[in-house]
Amino acid sequence: MKTLTVSVVTPSGPVLEDEYEMVVARAESGEIGILANHIPLVAPLSIAAVRLVRGNEEMKLAVNGGVMEVSSNKVTILAQSAEKPEDIDVERARRAKERAERRLQSNEEHIDRLRAELALQRALNRLNVANR
Ligand code: ATP
User: Over 90: is that where the pLDDT of 84 sits?
Assistant: First the structure.
């Protein structure tokens, strides 16, 4: 099957650049699957796993929002953070999840609920990608 080049970049540097047959990402408008020779596209991404498929292999990345651009058989994902499963610190993600849940359960007025909600989504995404 034909491949496309996938490049994932964050402010800390490149996370991955390799050839895959299919990229499946969750855009804000819904799930999108990209195969070779896809039409040009720019889409904002949700906080979710991006699946990279090659033959029988599938690898997941925990991508924290950002934007996906597709053109000339290349998929570029620019995000605030993106981690491979082996780079995820599971204990750190569990702590972040508990912190966010505590904030969301508290009745204190100064809590920034949207910020806590996004922190919870990032932590759940990491735990999902790390398979925990
Ligand atoms: P925390 O509250 O633990 O910092 P966070 O969701 O606020 O979590 P981010 O702002 O999304 O963290 O990320 C900041 C940097 O830390 C990024 O480079 C990201 O890749 C990294 N990072 C955050 N959490 C983890 C984790 N559990 N494992 C590995 N890297 C992480």
Answer: yes
Domain assignments of the chain as residue spans, ordered by start: 4-83, 88-130
CATH number of 4-83: 2.60.15.10
**Displacement of CA 49 from its chain's centroid (Å):** 4
**126 within ligand 1 shell (Cβ under 6 A):** yes
β-strands 4-10, 13-20 pairing: antiparallel
Distance CA 47, CA 115 (A): 13
Q: Is the CB of 62 under 6 A from ligand 1?
A: no
For 10-27, how does the pLDDT look when each residue is reduced to its tens digit (9 = 90+)?
Answer: 999 999 999 999 999 999
| 88-130 CATH choice from 3.40.250.10, 1.20.5.440, 3.30.420.10, 3.20.20.70 | 1.20.5.440
* Cβ neighbours for 7, distance < 8 A, ≥ 6 positions apart: 14, 16, 17, 74, 75, 76, 77
